[in-house]
Structure formats: structure tokens, C-alpha cells
Amino acid sequence: YHAQPSQGTEQEKMDYALNNKRRVIRLVLQWAALYEDLLQEDEAAMAFLEEFYVSVSDDTRMIAALKEQLPELEKIVKQVSEEPKAPQKKHKVLLQLFNTSDDRAQKRQPIRGSDEVLFKVYCVDQTYTTIRVPVSSSVKEVISAVADKLGSGEGLIIVKMSSGG
């Protein structure tokens, strides 16, 4: 963030520093926006964001051009540092479809809407549970079945993972 060239005119050094600082601020803003939920749980990340905000605020006194990015950075720091709503418990889950029978012994048959599939539901706290739903179930019905099993429907999301990430 504070890298400066050792050569060049004073104006070139200032332009170089300004461009580097803008790039770093943009990177931190994107990172914080992308990982906002996770950052709320990480004290080191929170401390970094607050320290970074203070550093950028200090730099705006010497480099006025940075002032345009300060409100956006302040907004992100405030959003991330806000405590989550007390009674709400967010469940982030991953559903994994798995087959309970041996594929070689299974006869090839068309899938019917009444057939059921078994899902593993992975929670953030490293636990999982299973649900059985009809193949024809909508996303809302799957989420509802998960909510019934977990006892809460707030903050549920479905994430699809593939072998490619």
C-alpha cells in the first residue's frame, strides 16, 4: 500500500503512490464485499479493515484524490462491523445428492416424479443431516424440508458444488 518508487520526479512519485493506493483500496473493497458474512466472524479481518480505514483516512489529508473512495470504504467497514441481528441464526447449507444403492445392481429405469432422492445437508458448523424428498420437488419444497429438519428456515441457501469447484 505504501510502495513508492525511488526514481522519478516528485509528481511521478505521487502519481505512482496514488495509483497503487487506489488499486489496493479497490481490492480491499471487493474482498470485503465478497466475504462480508465471513469477515464478521473473523476478529483479525475486522481489525485489519478498521486499521486500513484509519490509514486511508490519514492519507486523504495528504492525497486529496483518495477522498472519493473513503465513503465507500467507510460503508463497508460499518456493514462488516455491525453485529448480526441477535435472534436470527443463519444456516448456510450445502446439499449433496447421493445414491444409497449399488449402481451395478440397479436396473436402468426411467425416473418417475414419485421417486425419492436422499440429500445430505451440510451446515456451516461442520455437521450434516439427511432429508428424503421426491425427485419432482421444487427448490422451495427442498428448502422447506431442510427448514423443517433443522427447525429454522431463516438464512437458508442452496449451494451447488461441482468437482471443478
UniProtKB/TrEMBL annotation:
Disulfide bond found in the keyword field: no
InterPro entries: RA_dom, Ras-like_Gua-exchang_fac_N, Ras_GEF_dom_sf, Ubiquitin-like_domsf
The N-terminal Ras-GEF domain, residue ranges: 1-81
Molecular function per GO: guanyl-nucleotide exchange factor activity
Keywords: Guanine-nucleotide releasing factor
BP-aspect Gene Ontology terms: signal transduction
Ranges of residues in domain Ras-associating: 115-165
Protein name: RPGF4 factor
Organism: Ardeotis kori
Taxonomic lineage from the root: Eukaryota, Metazoa, Chordata, Craniata, Vertebrata
